[in-house]
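Good day; I would like, with your permission, to put a structural problem before you. I would ask you to consider whether the tokens describe a fold that such a sequence might reasonably adopt. The full record is reproduced below for your convenience:
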Amino acid sequence: MSVPVAGALDLSDTIVAIATAPGRGALSVVRLSGPAAHRLAQSALDRWPPTPRRATLSVVRDAQGAEVDQAVVIRYDAPASFTGDDAVEIITHGGSVVPATVVAAFISRGARQAQPGEFTRRAVLNGKLDILQAEATGDLVNASSRAGQRVALRQLDGGLSRRVLALRDQLIGLEALIAYDIDFPEEDDGPIAPERISRATDELIEALENLLATARAGELVREGALVVLAGAPNVGKSSLFNALLGHNRAIVTDIPGTTRDAIEAVIDTPLLPLRLVDTAGLRRADDPVERIGVEVSESYLTRASVVLACADSPTTASALITELRGRTSAPVILVRTKTDVCPATNIEIESGRAALGAVAALGVSAESGHGLDTLVAMTAHAAEHDAGGLEIDAPVLTHARHRFGVSRALDEVREFRARRHEGNIPALVAAVHLREAARSLEELVGRVDVEDVLDEVFRRFCVGK
């Protein structure tokens, strides 16, 4: 595996950092990794683990020999460690003081404070992970939903890496066919049938298109499907928003126009996270501040994955038809609110759904909780359907870098096909597009020098990971 130079970070350094979140807690983990990790650890510990991966209770001492903590120590021998270097993990008591003094004990002996993501970066540089797997490590730590967790675990296991490398192998195979055809001059259509090259090109383009199409699923998993609560003022949008979240976030009053700006929050579902937005009521507003709020609501409607059209009566449901017309292309679910005080018949709800052109309709009560679970399930399924179906257990593109790399490879293969069909340039020149496409895919997994990519990937990591 070709890897980039470490840049400003020196691989000969031994690095140390707290790997657990700061603050009060029962335990904390301090990680030490690098060529001198074992030597530095032994100088600070009363007892050294006799074998790798064996937990040993020991006293940690500072540079002056004073006891800092009693900790559990685990030793890892290169290359059988996360980073590929010699490493030590010290499980200390929690809090802010104890782990900090343990780190200070190692820094005073020559270790360096690790930079954000430096442990994972060393794992990449030492061939323990590729860049896609490293990104998945960060995604798993930052996952805010079960769907995000599942996607990150699949990517960490190498699912996306294997898919990208399989496409790269297809590219190299197609490039080999072109090279073989060049080496043997055409005689009776040459040794390679033109149809074979065309078929291989078309199959490759289709495979790249299918992978690129997963970017929408990746976006929904990372950011959440945008679900906009829309309706006239005082129909119960904010009460519904709060009830769906399980706690009060929006101010709920009987005064129309209370919500003057959009309020966002994310709820998790088994399918994908939903990014709920409580907007200002759709209405004509004379007050400049209220008018801005209404304009923000309209902006959200144009970007929505699903719209929850809220109405508390047949009259407000009918008014929604005019207010929503031309403002959104997203699937609409009619939500008949306040059914605890204003009961609605199934006929009324179904009539409103048909008039609004909604994909579904139901009655709910923010006060009693009636219908809320059904509404969440309906909304998640509508968002999934609008995205063309989510297969998050399959390889999914989750970052803009992924989309760019696959999109660039796809453009290069399409260009190869166009130039080859034109027949006005040599096959060898057209094949340059295949090499560029392969390079784009290789950059995704780190098979070529991509130091700038490494900098961007690990910039967002936490210290100690």
About this structure: The two ends are 22 Å apart (CA to CA). The chain has 17 helices and twelve strands. The first strand starts at residue 15 and ends at 18.
